[in-house]
Amino acid sequence: VIFVGMSKSGSSSILHKFVNGVSPGLNVTMSTAGYDQENFRIKDKNFDCIDFRGATSGNMGHALDIWTGYLKETNIVVFVIDSADREKLNEVKNLIDKFVKLSNIEDNEISEDSVFLFLANKQDEEEAINSFDLIILLELYKLSRVPWCIRSVSVKSALGMKETLDWMYEYTNDPRKVTIMSHEELIF
């Protein structure tokens, strides 16, 4: 599993909650650049993760080199979005485009069984953009190279965290049994 998110999106905090338990009240704030490796267990499965911290579209050169080395062995790419930070949406969209471009199934850079899991974090905040609106604003409906899913979460209140772990577990067991989306499935 690869975790990535813009600075202060909550990607490292979400991974930390997955590693240490998803109960509300365990509040972790991590805002560091670089990457880290973690692992956690869901039922009978171990998930090995690499977390690219504090990503921006301008500082991803080194991280993208490392990222491409992990693609062939990656089942799930978790992209955390700060759904309450409207000012960074354009930068988030550019970063998603860069990552998806690198994840070219046709060139065998990423496994055909891989999925992009977008987590719309901070859904407990008043100014948060809901998942459906993020699909439109970030043009996720145009993604054609990999299947994807978007889930609403809050690392602070633990909203959607357990359900996300359940989804990840089910996806790695049998991708056909969980809801994923592709550009063909969305009608506007």
Question: What does it look like?
Answer:
The protein has helices spanning 11-20, 61-70, 89-102, 131-137, 161-173; strands spanning 2-6, 34-42, 45-55, 76-82, 115-121, 148-152. The protein has 188 residues and is α/β, with parallel strands linked by helices. Strands 2-3-1-4-5-6 form a six-stranded mixed sheet, with helices on both faces. The radius of gyration is 15 Å and the shape is globular. Residues 183-188 have low confidence and may be disordered.
Low-pLDDT stretches? 183-188
Helix content: 25-40%
Helix/strand order, N-terminal first: EHEEHEHEHEH
The Rg value, from CA coordinates, equals 15 Å
Indicate the multimeric state: single chain
Mean pLDDT: 79
Number of strands: 6
Strand share of the residues?
15-25%
Keywords:
188 residues, alpha/beta, 6-stranded mixed β-sheet, 5 helices, 6 strands, disordered C terminus
Concise structural overview:
The chain has 188 residues and is an alpha/beta fold.
